[in-house]
Amino acid sequence: MRLQFGELNITPRVVNRLHELDFTVPELEDAIADHKSSCDGEPSVYVGTYGKYNDGSLCGLWIDLSSFDDYDEFINFCKAIHADEEDPELMAQDFECFPRQWYNEGFMDEDDFNHILEYSEMCDKHGDEAVDDYMEYYDDFDNFDEAYCGEWDSEEDFARSIVEDCYDIEKSMGSLANYFDYAAFARDLFMWDYNMGAHNHVFRRL
């Protein structure tokens, strides 16, 4: 059976091992088609094994993590594509489209897997750039909705919007409002109360 790199040779021993993992050969072929990543934006990991790697083989598959319902299903599938090994020591040899903090060559645990799926869902909902900006300052997504203020061209533009929404400086300052220092106000806002990410998304500090 052809993987993206290398072959899974279907021997009687492999067939028996697949049965232990609740797969038939045709079912595994269908599962490979379902879970193989095209690496065009989905959170993905390339899964080989340490045993094959030490033998000079990169045999394995790019896997779309978002195509699984839970961690156990993912691990079971990874073992199935390496059913030519009795107890494969799974190896994540590369990754795409999720933060590096959740990548582990020695293989991801369930918490990391769940974080990656949550990250993917948040990107679908809010956009990759907004989520990546948020993660410059926060470790989880619990406060995203409360912290997110929107996208602005600059810190000064955000400061102007605060003034326009919250203060009537023309009424209180008259013609002196023309001399209001928005740049200085922006410096104060982003020193204490707000953050702006690399893609210009603004988040309230909580």
Write a structural description.
The chain is of the alpha+beta class and 206 residues long. The protein contains ten helices and six strands. A three-stranded antiparallel sheet has the order 2-1-3. The chain has a three-stranded antiparallel sheet with strand order 4-6-5. A hairpin with a 4-residue loop joins strand 5 and strand 6. Helix 5 (110-126) crosses helix 6.
SSE topology sketch:
Layout (H helix, E strand, L loop, with lengths): L11 H9 L4 H11 L8 E6 H5 L6 E4 L6 H11 L8 E7 L13 H17 L1 H8 L8 H4 E4 L3 H12 L2 H5 L8 H11 L1 E3 L4 E4 L2
Antiparallel strand pairs: 1-2, 1-3, 4-6, 5-6
Write a short abstract of this structure.
This protein is α+β, with helices and mostly antiparallel strands and 206 residues long. Helices cover 45% and strands 14% of the residues.
